[in-house]
């Protein structure tokens, strides 16, 4: 299938894999960013934020280029619409990472001591979801080579099941963190509480977006 497709133009599969890698690499920078924020090292935090912004911009340019040059002919091995929706889902991960960085630095958020021990494990688990989504997308070229059949499909479907489990873990951790924030409502100013809720929700969105990427990949396989 891939050999036939290559006769009619460059495959979009590898650029989509590269875009997902860029999006995950962007999100991964959130960990050193949070470490800097927890230490209130704003100079380092701003340096990491700029790195996130650069990576997000690069991912955005890759997305734009893919949209402009994605083949429209009959020999596209998978649905063009499905590929565009997959690309959009991947892009949400990088966008959300930039949103989180902007919120942290824009407000110079100080994380309450009682919340800090829960936050990094939660972020780590959400990044686990993004990492696994990246790994699954990296199998796209192998899926294409096998015609979306055989053992390669089983491997990817197992990744998608694991991705769902990780997202469930993240939901449970998010609930625990929200309960911790609720306990702080009588102590902290209302505006700080509001942005803490927003921050943890956006972190949780990383896992949700990664799960959506897995879902879009599953649709490609099913069709």
Describe the protein.
- The chain has 223 residues and is mainly alpha-helical.
- The protein has a single domain, classed as Up-down Bundle (Methane Monooxygenase Hydroxylase, Chain G, domain 1).
- The chain has nine helices and no strands.
- Helix 2 runs antiparallel to helix 4, helix 3 packs antiparallel against helix 6 and helix 5 runs antiparallel to helix 9.
- The longest helix has 34 residues.
Keywords:
223 residues; mainly alpha; Methane Monooxygenase Hydroxylase, Chain G, domain 1; 9 helices; disordered N terminus
Instruction: Give the overall average pLDDT.
Output: 90
Q: Could you name the CATH homologous superfamily?
A: Phosphate transport system protein phou homolog 2, domain 2
Please tell me how large the radius of gyration is.
19 Å
Helix content: over 70%
User: Count the helices. How many?
Assistant: 9
The SSE string, one letter per element, is HHHHHHHHH
Biggest sheet: strands, sense, closure?
none
Overall, the morphology is: globular
CATH architecture: Up-down Bundle
Structural class: mainly alpha
Q: Runs with pLDDT <50, length 5+? A: 1-9
Strand content: under 5%
- CATH class annotation: Mainly Alpha
Number of domains: 1
How far apart are the termini?
15 Å
CATH topology: Methane Monooxygenase Hydroxylase, Chain G, domain 1
């Amino acid at each position: 299938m891939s050999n036939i497709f290559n006769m009619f133009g460059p495959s979009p599969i590898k650029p989509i894999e590269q875009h997902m890698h860029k999006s995950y690499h962007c999100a991964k920078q959130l960990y050193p960013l949070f470490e800097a924020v927890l230490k209130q090292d704003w100079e380092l935090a701003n340096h990491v934020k700029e790195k996130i912004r650069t990576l997000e911009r690069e991912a955005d340019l890759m997305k734009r280029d893919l949209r402009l040059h994605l083949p429209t002919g009959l020999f596209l091995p998978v649905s063009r619409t499905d590929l565009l929706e997959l690309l959009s889902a991947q892009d949400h991960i990088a966008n959300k990472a930039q949103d989180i960085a902007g919120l942290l630095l824009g407000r110079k958020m100080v994380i309450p001591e009682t919340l800090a021990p829960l936050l990094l494990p939660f972020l780590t688990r959400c990044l686990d979801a993004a990492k696994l989504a990246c790994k699954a997308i990296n199998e796209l070229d192998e899926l294409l080579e096998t015609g979306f059949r055989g053992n390669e499909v089983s491997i990817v479907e197992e990744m998608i099941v694991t991705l769902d489990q990780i997202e469930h873990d993240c939901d449970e951790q998010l609930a625990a963190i929200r309960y911790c924030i609720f306990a702080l409502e009588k102590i902290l100013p209302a505006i700080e509480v509001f942005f803490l809720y927003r921050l943890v929700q956006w972190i949780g969105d990383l896992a949700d977006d990664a799960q959506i990427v897995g879902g879009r990949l599953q649709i490609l396989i099913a069709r």
